[in-house]
Amino acid sequence: MTAATHSPLFPQVPESADAVLDGLDPEQREVALALHGPVCVLAGAGTGKTRAITHRIAYGVRAGILQSGSVLAVTFTNRAAGEMRGRLRQLGAGGVQARTFHSAALRQLQYFWPKVVGGDLPRLLERKVQLVAEAAARCRVRLDRNELRDVTGEIEWAKVTQTVPADYPAVVAKSVREAPRDPAEISQIYATYEQLKRDRSVIDFEDVLLLTVGILQDRHDIADQIRRQYQHFVVDEYQDVSPLQQRLLDLWLGDRDSLCVVGDASQTIYSFTGATPDHLLNFRTRHPDATVVKLVRDYRSTPQVVHLANGLLSQARGRAAEHRLELISQRDPGPEPAYTEYADEPAEAEGTARRIRDLIAAGVPAGEIAVLYRINAQSEVYEQALADAGVPYQLRGAERFFERQEVREAGIALRGAARAGGNDSLLDDAEDLPSQVRAVLSTKGWTTDPPAGSGAVRDRWESLAALVRLAEDFARARPGATLSDLVAELDERAAAQHAPTVQGVTLASLHAAKGLEWDAVFLVGLTEGMMPITYAKTDEQVEEERRLLYVGVTRARLHLTLSWALSRSPGGRPSRRPTRFLKGLRPGSGALGAGTGGPGGSSGGSVDRAPGGGRRKHRGPVRCRVCGATLTEAGEMKLMRCEDCPSDMDEALYERLRDWRGDRARELGQPAYCVFTDKTLMAIAERVPATGGELAGIAGVGARKLDRFGADVLALCAGEEPGEGCGGVDEES
After folding, report:
1. Strand partners, 369
2. Which residues contact 234 (CB under 8 A, 6 or more apart)?
3. Cβ neighbours of residue 599 under 8 Å, at least 6 residues apart?
4. Of the ranges 196-205, 448-457, 616-625, which is most confident?
5. pTM of the model
6. Mean pLDDT of 225-253
7. What's the rounded Cα separation, in Å, for the pair 168 and 160?
């Protein structure tokens, strides 16, 4: 019997309760049938935990054991809650509430506030950073942008651990937590922030939980009313609950034990927000009669990827490590993980982009590839490298799909066309649903071919193209479906935040990648100081960094590449070392530790040294040609000057280069950045190369582009018209 972590896009609703159980493996089936008393599901990465718990809820509802309106399923992100609602709807249990802790609490708070306090609930503060900045200013404390973010996070931590401003310094002193500023200063800013909120009658997201807890503690009649409504609770990602969320859950439950929790202590990566795996690890102590089920069959990753993941955890220490799950891959063998060492960060980014381009050429969709890094600041060099390689990408954490302006406009247009039906002349020549959608969206900017270049125009087209692909998939799954049916599907998906896939390589931090998966994953920047991060000082903090890398590894289904750079910038001293977490796991780093095996696993793989990697000639630091400062950012190194140093760019040449680039991109049927990025054109217009050698010395040109476009560029730089075709150029010509 097999199971899968992802099903067809539009599956048929099971005909009966028993049919809901079809396709579950023995352990998943055990979860689905455990409908009474406390249940604890220990689920490893890729083992189908969401499948198990949604089938459990759906089976209970379809069998008449659970009432759909009496079940509350809670998780931690809107995306996860939306996915859960979508799956429950597909299983015929659409009436079940699946929400985040904050969403569920806010709904209850809005309903009961007039009865308890009177009047409307205070306005919810969407972003607290600005108010924290004002509080700091009133306390005469100057914070830069990074300090402001850290202090804001510290206030959030204090609130979810139920620490009041006056107690904050003492609580920090007793813990292993390192405050980003003097604890007394943070305490003062925290207190002023709370006063500003009261003065302006606003609340923040943490207040939503605190106020709900307060009402349920003080008003037993309201607590009883909520308990009568919700008889059964399911908590996903239970290793991530904070003390405040656990307190709210206890108040929802009362003296009942109709609770199912799901989690994996080895994926605890949010302790900085107040999350702790202790509630998961202590569950059997609190509930001695609990049913405990372990899910270890990994349906996501190949044996080679699973072997590396198990190896990472085999070296872990601490309480969470004592409860680690040994995954067993259910997939056919695949390629060994690749380990690549580069001379510097730009070389690592360019090498990663080349490998991604090769994967796409071999048939891997761009949307099934991800580049994951430790901190968001690492993304810029990869954005530039992918743009130079002509590879589309998307940054994880951008605006939600259904909230984008073009998607809202497209929805209005589709709804209008569906309402008009046969009276809309736009649909006269459209024979089927996909052609109807294409016809409607063509009025909003969709075209058969993508626009040249990147930026807002390309992003808009990608959003509309995602809707076209969704319509094509919907029509294949539901023959005879109408435009009205598709509009209803889009409405349900918008409510569930179940967005269609936008094609493009995903760039994301390891934290943002939690809960996602791709066919190919590139884990980059794996050096000491970045993984583990330099401020991870205690054993507990270092172990959380190991778990973060484990989460990154387990995002990969088939292809996994791990890489690091020996220096930050070209010509820099190669003083960096690869992360300690790979010692004994990557070839050439010592013996593999015991207990890292698994069916189909091996200690294979290879360490590649990219051209020049580790043996690159020392060229010295790259310096600004205007002020002489050492350059470290990829964009600045491309221009050979600091971003804010004066530019001597030939504006007329730059405009001619842009016009030429647009023409060439249209001829090639590619986005403009596939020819040259804006930064590369700026560098050319600033340096005005006269020979092929000078042109080749500009970052972003390279041998391939020199051969393809060099003659045209040099002609433009000389004030001449580019010749026909795309003739090459000799380096000294």
Report:
1. 520
2. 53, 56, 57, 71, 72, 73, 74, 259, 260, 261, 262
3. 303, 328, 329
4. 196-205
5. 0.70
6. 93
7. 12
